[in-house]
Design brief:
The protein has about 450 residues and is mostly beta strands. Helix content is about 15%, strand content about 40%. The strands form five sheets. Strands 12, 15, 16, 17, 18, 19, 20, 21, 22 and 23 form a ten-stranded antiparallel β-sheet that branches. Strands 5-4-3-2-1-25 form a six-stranded antiparallel β-sheet, with no helix packed on it. The chain is flat. The chain starts with a helix and ends in a 5-residue tail after the last helix.
Amino acid sequence: MWRVIVFCLLFVSLQGAEVRQTVWKKGETFSDYLQRNGISLELLKSISGEDAKYLSEIQAGEPYYEMREGTTLLQSLIPIGEEMQIQLSRDLRSGHYRFDIIPIVYRVVEDRAVVEIRKSCSADIDRVTHNPRLGFLLKYLYKGAVDFRKLRRGDKVAFAYRQKSRLGRPWGQAEIRGAVVESRRKRRFIFVDEEGNAWNDVVKKVRSTRKGKREVLKTVTRTVRSSVRRSRFVMPIRGARITSRFSYKRWHPILHRYRPHLGVDWGAKRGTPLYAIAKGRVIYAGWMRGYGKVVKIDHGGGFVSLYAHQSRIKVRRGRYVQRGEVIGFVGSTGRSTGPHVHLGLYKNGRAVNPLRYLGKSAKVPTLRKITRQLKTMEEYTVVQTKTVPIKGAKMLKEQLVSALENPPKAYQWESYDRSVVHLSDKKRYPESEEVQSWALK
């Protein structure tokens, strides 16, 4: 019975609360945010070193949600990626604040939209869907094929897309599955495959290579490599296996809860050399809370790499290093379950998957002839191209043509001008249960 009474009291106390969406201010730290809301900085002492490093992942300009009753902050949900978020909550009985990192609750909207050009493609897509990101993504997919500035009044654009939805607003990056631009009685299609590549037909061309050896008579005695093309980034360790991959949502082996893992781990023996993945300047060398002994290198072009949990650091801050140069040695310092290296890669301040950039370009040898005839075994490579249907593209093409002739009603995303979210409208915002359940946590 007492649980029912407590629930009723909490429900009644939240009737005067409202949820508002705002954006994180440029230059504001988490400490600034606490002080601005009258929250004691003693809360920072309760945050573990492992969780504290994610405070730097809060991005300026990112939207987040607050529940307030008057000027009192009751709850905050602050994203640190597309999958995880910081939860700051006020206990309604004691008035104390709690810190946690939890998964983001969202749903996926799949929709088709037809836009008739009146002003411009981007403005008209925003007018029909209230999702301006779709216009930018559509122009990117058609880059070099369609000049959207030359579309005339009355031309049409139809597209099918997927979009994460959070409280009625777009969340994260949209995925356009296919589109058609109808202009001057011509239709230009685009379809996106599982890898995110765009094609102008329902089929795509896939290249494959086949290698072999054959006996040939040549005027050579040996083959010499005259040129080698390498990737910009090389592996940070040799002969080691990956123990944990990049993920926005990973089960933490020590904390036993979900946390982002913004890097790649390789397990190796203590003392194994670590190499700089590219040339650059060392901008940090020392201890960094849960990461232990850390080296950070600025490679230019917006790229910064981080090497954590080292047993011993070999370089100093300010030094310039070359690609493949030893910068330290594998260890288990900081929060670690055993000897390994954690490699983080950041592009323009945001964590990216290092495996997308390491060793992508292959070595290509060039052979030259030596003036002597003999029989030798020669390697050869045959490049084959075959046509493969894009999954679901044929049916999607029929749906897009039908949509041009009979335009469906597009999903209306919530306008960005509206900042207040009315949680009582569950029919429009099924994700609102995420915010409504805060008070019961």
